[in-house]
Amino acid sequence: MGRYIVQRIIYMIVTMFVIVALTFFSMKLLPGTPYKNQEKLSPEMIELLNHKYGLDKPLPVQFVKYVGDLLKGDLGVSFQFDGRPVTEIIGERLPVSADLGFEAMVIGLVFGLLLGIIAGLRRNTVWDYGSMIVAVIGVSVPSFVLAQLMQYYFAVKHHWLPVAYWEGPAYHILPDIALGFGPVATIARYMRTAMVDTLNQDYIEMARAKGLSRPAVTFKHAVRNSLIPIVTIVGPMAVNLMTGVLVIENIFAIPGIGDQFVTSVYTNDYPMIMGTTIMYSVAFIVVVFIVDLLYGVIDPRIRLAGGES
Amino acid sequence: MRGKAKWSIFVSIMLVLSLFLAACGGSSQSSGDGGGKKKSENQLADKQVLYFASGSDIPSLDFSVATDTTSFGVLTNIFSGLMTMRKDKPVPDLAAGQPEVSADGKVYTFKLRDGIKWSDGSPITAQDFVYAWQRFVNPKTAAAYGYIYASANIKNAAKIMDKNSDLFGKVDQLGVKALDDKTLQVTLEKPTPYFLSLMAFPPFFPLKKDFVEKQGDKYAKEPENMIYSGAYKLAKWDHGKGWTLVKNPDYWDAKNITIDEVNYNVVKDDVTALNLYKTDKIYMDTLTADYIDQYKDSPEFHTQAGNCVFFLKLNVSKNKILANKKARQAIAMALDREGLTKTLLNDGSIPAHYLVPKDFTFGPDGKDFRAAAPKGYLLGGKDEAKKLWDEAKKELGIKTAKLEFMTTDTTVAGKLAEYNANQIEKTLDGLKITINKQPWGEYLKRDDAGNYDIGGGSGWCPDYQDPMTFLDMFTTGNAENTGKWSNKTYDQLINEAQNLGNKPEERWKKLQEAEKVLLEEAPVIPTYQDGSAFLVKPYVKGLEFQNSSPRTDFRHAKVYKH
Predict the structure, then answer these.
(1) Measured distance CA(A249)–CA(A260) in Å, rounded
(2) Closest alpha carbon to B336 in B255, B421, B393
(3) Is residue B12 part of a domain?
(4) DSSP sequence for B287-338
């Protein structure tokens, strides 16, 4: 097990290096400059600015400097927000996105699992169809449509909830539901399939034959074994939700990091492009690693490192 | 019983669904303006506080870095210059009245007001201006707006920023001097009629040396890293979320500033902003094209002409068809600008057959520059266009022609390009237009390299309040003149105007003449002047709108009970 973890960590570092290098060199192929009024700047002026920000040096030199700073935890300063360190911007905005994403994830897990389990247990009944209708809607209605409908109905028409902003708990309700509805649907569908599968296994029959109670069979055997596919999808899903979702953050005017994935590229804000990429990749790689470790906990059949340890 | 339970779940699910559908069909108008008719209409609100939405966070509050309207909007409220813009005209702010101008129009002497001070209590002095200006032109600062000092014709500014000059970096050679604490003297290269309006522009605002140097890299990064000289102070700045301005009691004119607090929230989505407006969370909202028809009869609806003009740039030097004057004129007349602005943009933009926008600059007689040719030039329309095109084809000895229409990759730019190309193709027989969409950075690169036939994603927003900012870019050899059009009469007219700063009437005529020459030759084909349409709550009165920062001037507004 220990050897496996060390090996994985080395792989993760190598992967990060490749991602950093690829992003760094490919973003420099973007046409244009990071200067907002570039259309009015003379070539001499651009030269002066490039010199000021060290963009006049050869690319490999810039890269070595970047990696050097990166190892010291310095991601550089943003161009869009004059001179503000990228780490500071991410540090301010990521927690907001993570908060929103976490709440949506909780909604997704609670209701998704519930619907999935009910549908699986009560296959081909109204319960099943009802849950799956919700699931189909959740998968096919984009979150921004749901967000705008809810905003109109609950906030503009009835004044029950705030239209937007990120202040107290009331402000979280609409964005959480809008963002959580998709995960509810996805998780419900996976869970239902897994439940149906598991319930058909011989060991369930066996458990029942042993005379175990219904709840014991359902929760100890069926649900636990059905969780494996859920663990697989939940990790990356959580990363996607918690690193900022542009549309939901825009619709509810939430000061998260989501828009920076797009805006930084549009504005040639090189340090910010690198910052968001690194942030997302690290989260993703780490979560995938954790998920792999979790498999073993949930399902003894997948114990790692050949079971020798 | 069990069956019933099943159905009740099912029914509740259907209820949830129908709720969404109901919301979906809820197109009936219930705009939250019903509150206008309350009895308390004419009573001032207890708190004079405004709420606005901003499409972006503040990019920078350092004059030497800021280049965008959001930053300038805040900067002109929290800092002061010699002048400030009021209803599109410069009026004295920190300056005690109009400056004394030398007979040759090159030396301006400003007296500063008595009792003006920074928000830390220290006096604002003429030395603060000298320091800020020298810092701005310093090549080490590399201010993105540095060229504005050259546009202002301040003595040696261009040379100090030019690395091939002897004066490169020698900021003490800049034409600005503090004669004493209260007297500032500015020397220009030549008389510059628009000089005073530039004094209301943040790059020319003062800075306190001790404070700025003590802050170093931190200067202007947070509210506590600034001291203020304007009508407001930045009380709070939640990066990415919003900011709050509060009245500055140390501002010299504080007694006439009526609004005590202004809150901005960053709202990027247009629909969200409108919903916030409907629920009285913000008091003003800029409308996008989709909502104009719905609100255009509302008393809350306002429009304001902008000062940017959009145009097609023709590559006269590279393309032999576009080298033909009649062909260029035919294209200019083939466009349907009415359809473009009314149907396609529908955002308050106005059709333009002119390059210098209307409601932008006013001559020595106080009249709009456009008064000489209110409608513009080349107004012949489609029939005339067809005739000219036939003649052009004969002159060129061709039956068909192909041109590339380069534009940017935004949705609006794409729609505009398709519309214009379609109008040209439909009107001009045998002319085929292909559209080439490029990202903005690449568009600029190709534009600079003269690598296009028709540059359709171009436009110009003024740097200072004078027709020259639009006209001088089409002189021979100007970096912006990438289509390499060259006309001796035009060059001469512009050159004369540049040296007539002392004779404003004559200069004005030359500029009007120059615009006529340019547009009749049609190396550049204007299409529209931008505009904006917005809603303002009926209980907010006295907001003033103008074309330079502060664009929404709320300094003298009042909020009534609602």
Answers:
(1) 11
(2) B421
(3) no
(4) PPHHHHHHHTTSTTEEEEEEEEEEEEEE-TTT-TTTTSHHHHHHHHHH--HH
Do B211 and B84 lie in a common domain?
Answer: yes
Rg of chain A's alpha carbons, rounded to an integer? 24
For an interface test with B, the pick among A55, A77, A82 (most B C-beta atoms closer than 10 Å) comes out as A82
SS (H, E, C) B425-437: HHHCCCEEEEEEE
| Number of Cβ pairs < 8 A linking chain A and chain B | 160
Mention every residue, 6+ apart, whose C-beta is less than 8 A from residue B27.
none
Q: Decide if A42 and B147 are in contact by the 8 Å CB cutoff.
A: yes
Q: What pLDDT band is residue A31 in, cutting at 50, 70 and 90?
A: confident
pLDDT digits (tens, 9 = 90+) for A255-270: 999 999 999 998 999 9
Q: Which of A31, A48, A152 sits opposite B439 (nearest CB)?
A: A31
Domain boundary among B202, B218, B234: B218
Would the pLDDT of B6 be above 50? no
| Residues of chain B with C-beta less than 8 angstroms from the C-beta of A256 | 240
Residues 6+ apart with CB under 8 A from B440: A31, A32, B408, B409, B457
Residues of A in contact with B150 (CB under 8 A): none
Contact B237, B222 (CB under 8 A): yes
Task: Give the number of other CB atoms < 10 A from CB of residue B174.
Answer: 23
Hey, are the CB atoms on A253 and B9 less than 8 Å from each other? no
Structural domain count of chain B: 2
Q: Which residue, B218, B238, B269, sits at the end of a domain?
A: B218
Distance from CA of A149 to the nearest CA of B (A): 6
Task: Supply the pLDDT for residue B15.
Answer: 45
Contact A6, A304 (CB under 8 A): no
**Domain co-membership, B213 together with B327:** no
* Same-domain check for residues B338 and B454: yes
Average pLDDT, integer, range B248-277: 96
Residue B340 lies in a domain: yes
- Domains delineated in chain A: 92-255+288-308 (1.10.3720.10)
Average pLDDT, chain B: 90
What number is the ipTM of this complex? 0.89
pLDDT digits (tens, 9 = 90+) for A136-160: 898 899 999 999 999 999 999 999 9
Closest C-alpha among B522, B516, B526 to residue B459: B526
Distance, in Å, from the CA atom of A62 to the CA atom of A24, rounded to the nearest integer, reads: 9
Q: Are B404 and B436 in contact (CB under 8 A)?
A: yes
Residue A228: pLDDT above 90? no
Expressed as residue numbers, the domain containing B101 is 80-218
Inter-chain residue contact A157 with B26, CB threshold 8 Å: yes
Residue B544 lies in a domain: no
Contacts (Cβ under 8 Å, ≥6 apart) of B502: B104, B105, B191
Does B249 map to a domain? no
B238/A255 Cβ within 8 A: yes
CATH for B210: 3.90.76.10
CA-CA distance, A232 to B191, in Å (whole number)?
Answer: 73
